[in-house]
Amino acid sequence: MADEELVDPKKYLEDSCKPKCARPLHTYQACVRRIKGDVSGHKHCTGQYFDYFSCVDNCVAPKLFPKLK
């Protein structure tokens, strides 16, 4: 048992949840394309980034917590 490498199930659960969050991902990617040429550094896509990962986290959480000890 001590020689077994522990595997983080969150990574695999995130991979399975990402397709369910396609709309926030496309919104984030559109924002990134829109501000690509900004040299001032004032424009950002932080809100869209957090929307996407909030969607992923909300999908992962109910599946992850029962697996934790």
From TrEMBL:
Name of the protein in its database record: Cytochrome b-c1 complex subunit 6
Q: How does it sit in the membrane?
A: Peripheral membrane protein
| Matching PANTHER family | CYTOCHROME B-C1 COMPLEX SUBUNIT 6, MITOCHONDRIAL, UBIQUINOL-CYTOCHROME C REDUCTASE COMPLEX 7.8 KDA PROTEIN
Cellular-component GO terms for this entry? mitochondrial inner membrane
GO biological process terms, alphabetically, are: mitochondrial electron transport, ubiquinol to cytochrome c
The set of disulfide-linked cysteines is: C17-C59, C31-C45
Q: Which Pfam families match?
A: UCR_hinge
Annotated compartments: Mitochondrion inner membrane
**Family annotation (Gene3D superfamilies):** Ubiquinol-cytochrome C reductase hinge domain
Q: In which family does this protein belong, per the annotation?
A: Belongs to the UQCRH/QCR6 family.
